[in-house]
Amino acid sequence: MKEKLSVVKIGGNVIEDEKALDNFLSAFSRLEGLKILVHGGGKLATQLATKLGIESKMIDGRRITDAETVDIITMVYGGLANKKIVAQLQSKNINAIGLSGADGNSIQAHKRPVKQIDYGFVGDIDGVSSELLKNLLSINLTPIFCALSHDGAGQLLNTNADTIASEIAIGMASVFETTLYYCFEKKGVLLDITDENSVVKNIDTSKYKELLSKGVIADGMLPKLHNCFHALDNNVEKVCLGDVSMLDKNTKLFTTLKL
Ligand SMILES: Nc1ncnc2c1ncn2[C@@H]1O[C@H](COP(=O)(O)OP(=O)(O)O)[C@@H](O)[C@H]1O
Ligand SMILES: CC(=O)N[C@@H](CCC(=O)OP(=O)(O)O)C(=O)O
């Protein structure tokens, strides 16, 4: 039987809020078994860019990443956000190790080809080094990934953190029984965005199609659920979406996705 692994992605609104981040990291540290954390920090990057007088451009939730912007996101994702999380986890007795996709060649990617839109230095993932991650986990290190991949030719690439999480989960699924958790500020996929308790508890492929056609899934939830089903289609056992209480397993109010 395969050993269990949890891959947890932490949402942008949680990272931004010091108290919420601390709560989340405490819950993450209590999570039993092998685990990997993935974080973004898109809003923090936008804030720093604004302070530096650089405009942030997003299309369909993806950042147009020119040469100036790739430097900013490297500082924010790979530096500030990643190292703060690693240090806070150390204080909670988790031996965390911060990684970008360039570290240990852990996430290989290529620059997204220009079609209608030139996204700039944005990476589409080709592979994840599951062997390296397995080795780190085996010596009791907990990998903490930021939203950076690389092209193998010296260029760092901006890659959406939801996608990094699903690709890591897919890469690890051959070795571990893998569950992917998307932890954000809502209790799960909501039927009515204004009603916190209207959580859709179970979503399979046909329910997903129904929710899409009814327009229930919108904004950031669209790419997120696309990533969820991509992971399920590629051997990830289970995907769960919810707030921090989902990690502590002291609530039944969260969304579980299965094929
Ligand atoms: N049906 C829905 N249920 C829950 N959230 C939804 C729904 N439709 C749209 N959303 C929006 O999607 C957002 C989550 O996407 P996003 O901000 O990209 O995630 P993250 O915080 O993980 O980066 C929520 O904050 C919410 O405003
Ligand atoms: C290509 C692309 O758009 N990358 C994202 C990466 C950060 C991210 O995903 O952050 P959240 O999870 O906090 O939204 C961006 O730069 O905003």
TrEMBL record:
Site (Transition state stabilizer): K9, K224
Reaction(s) catalysed (UniProt annotation): N-acetyl-L-glutamate + ATP = N-acetyl-L-glutamyl 5-phosphate + ADP
Entry's transmembrane regions: none
Pathway: Amino-acid biosynthesis; L-arginine biosynthesis; N(2)-acetyl-L-ornithine from L-glutamate: step 2/4
Alphabetical UniProt keywords: Amino-acid biosynthesis, Arginine biosynthesis, ATP-binding, Cytoplasm, Kinase, Nucleotide-binding, Transferase
The protein's Enzyme Commission number: 2.7.2.8
Residue positions binding substrate: G41, G42, R63, N158
Boundaries of every Aspartate/glutamate/uridylate kinase domain copy: 5-241
Compartments, as annotated in UniProt: Cytoplasm
Single GO term (MF): acetylglutamate kinase activity
Presence of the UniProt keyword Transmembrane in the record: no
EC class: transferase
NCBIfam families (alphabetical): argB
Purpose of the protein: Catalyzes the ATP-dependent phosphorylation of N-acetyl-L-glutamate.
Family statement: Belongs to the acetylglutamate kinase family. ArgB subfamily.
UniProt cross-references to HAMAP family, sorted A to Z: ArgB
Protein name (record): Acetylglutamate kinase
